[in-house]
Amino acid sequence: MTALPPNSGMPTTRGLNFFDADPNLFHALRAYAAPGDVERALPHLRELGRIAGSELDELAARADANPPVLRNFDEHGNRVDEIVYDPAFVRMQEIGFSEFGFAAMSHREGVLGWPSRIPHVIKYALSYLFVQGEFGLFCPISMTDSAARVIDQFGPDELRQRYLPGLTSTTFSSLLQSAQLLTERTGGSDVGANECVAREENGQWLLTGEKWFCSNVGADIHLTLARPVGAVAGTKGLGMFLVPKTLADGSRNRYTVRRLKEKLGSKSMPTGEYEFHDAVGYSVGDISRGFAQMTEMINVSRLSNGMRAAALMRRSLLEAVTHARGRSAFGKALVDLPLMREQLFEMTLDAESALSIVLYAARTLDDADSGSEFHEKVIRIVTPLIKYAVCRRARTVAGMSMNIRGGNGYIEEWVNARLVRDAHLGSIWEGSENVVALDVARAATRNRAHDALFRDLESRLDTLTDPEVLRISQPVRLRLMEVASRFEALLSGDADLRDARMTAMCDRLAALTCTVLLLGEADAEARAGLGYRKLLIANEYRKRYLDLVDPLDLGDEGITFLDEVLDGGRVPAAAVAGW
């Protein structure tokens, strides 16, 4: 798909630099990353923004239209189970794995010339730009990244030495990619019902059974759960194993790929079904704690899911704004029509709040990895909260963007259809909405993780200094106390009622968290002399999502200052209405 000529009347984002088009990303990143890291990342952010809006965007369209194909047998009739990719997908792999080193940057020094390992908050900012161009590939990238993390944490030295160099390689020819095999037909969300078994024979583990969903089919290694013979039922009896594609003697391991799934979205990346037939596997970590260790991989993948959903929202907003500014109706530019301005403003609230909580979580993960038990608790509850709330909202924003583009938005030649399809996946993989909402409750009941989150939010309110921000923030303290009290009451009450109300509680908790984070960013921008644009965002977000103000009672501040909001311009303090 090529860019349309300027006079065609059909505006396109193709060719835009997605970083330069998003002034909020730079300002939000400065609120969570170290200043030196932001400055060091700037040229990479700008270069990736250029690629995402041009080459990557075009490659993604081609790969989506030409999905991978499973080749079960070679010309001699030998079983090979190879995945045949369109060249566009291979080129995207080179960009993601090699040129930018996404799967390696958290594990080794020197990626992108960084003097140390790249902090998660920088990695997620870069990833946010990449996913705006291509969504599907980031599943293999994330699983390879998280597999290296799990093997480094729990694997024996032999597995570390054998597999970590390949998993963290930025040389495409020596790269090893990973997949995660968890779901079975008998156990979707109920992993404890899985039936895949592992038996030890002559000092070697052999796995037999099936796996119903495997993304990144054809990967070099697979992290999977299986129940050792004689182990107890449920998740406590599951061990974690590394199942390589190729054995030490160069022969294929004993498993088959039954078929590839026909998916609604993420068509560029293959998902399929596996059958193990005494496949050789290597135990990773404590054989009796396989599921607990696998959750480390799941949690990192969930956070990546949230980042991807935020990126889809940003791309959807960019598509809508570009269309509205380039089209006219009834003698006016679409962007000048009041209802259109209201819709674009609400999409902006969604997109910017999503980025805020993702960057906050990434910074929290950095702190947790540095040894902070406090931040370990915060990330434990924020990760499923993001997976629930951000992924859910992405569907609405992507759908609104399609609606704004109208008929062309429903046509596969434009990106909107792909954005809508991909947005639905975020709420399903690595735990559906109900599963992750209940995981928020588990984080609270088992670890008192909510106490840490509320303390952190309160401390962030304590650091605010700008008078206008303080004025707006004072009632938020009361709201924080109210949400904390109601959350505690829900946890201590009837278990069935707690579970039934947990999605509503997650909506309220996410709204509180995002409101506080947006206020912190607003304070930083105000103190830097940049005006009150982010304070307007924070206040209007608070009204709509935390206080649930009747939409008929909202003011026109968002409509009036939409251009300044979209372009990162100055908004006066007087534009931020009181409570």
Question: Which descriptors apply to this entry?
Answer:
579 residues, 11 strands, globular, Butyryl-CoA Dehydrogenase, subunit A, domain 2, 19 helices, disordered N terminus, alpha+beta, 5-stranded mixed β-barrel
What layout of secondary structure does this protein have?
Elements: H1 23-32, H2 35-52, H3 55-65, E1 69-73, E2 79-84, H4 87-99, H5 120-133, H6 138-154, H7 157-167, E3 178-181, E4 197-201, E5 204-215, E6 221-228, E7 239-244, E8 255-260, E9 271-283, H8 290-326, E10 328-329, E11 332-333, H9 338-369, H10 373-405, H11 416-426, H12 433-447, H13 449-462, H14 467-492, H15 495-500, H16 502-527, H17 533-546, H18 557-560, H19 562-567
Parallel strand pairs: 3-6, 4-6
Antiparallel strand pairs: 1-2, 4-5, 5-9, 6-7, 7-9, 8-9, 10-11
Helix pairs in contact: 1-9, 2-5, 3-4, 5-8, 5-9, 6-7, 6-8, 8-9, 8-10, 8-11, 9-10, 9-16, 9-17, 10-11, 10-12, 10-13, 10-16, 13-14, 13-16, 14-16, 16-17
Commentary on this structure:
- With 579 residues, the protein is α+β, with helices and mostly antiparallel strands.
- Among the domains are: 178-289, Butyryl-CoA Dehydrogenase, subunit A, domain 2; 448-548.
- Helix content is 55%, strand content 12%.
- The protein is built from 19 helices and 11 strands.
- It has helices spanning 23-32, 35-52, 55-65, 87-99, 120-133, 138-154, 157-167, 290-326, 338-369, 373-405, 416-426, 433-447, 449-462, 467-492, 495-500, 502-527, 533-546, 557-560, 562-567; strands at residues 69-73, 79-84, 178-181, 197-201, 204-215, 221-228, 239-244, 255-260, 271-283, 328-329, 332-333.
- Helix 5 packs across helix 8 (290-326) and helix 9 (338-369) crosses helix 17.
- The model is unreliable at 1-7 (pLDDT under 50).
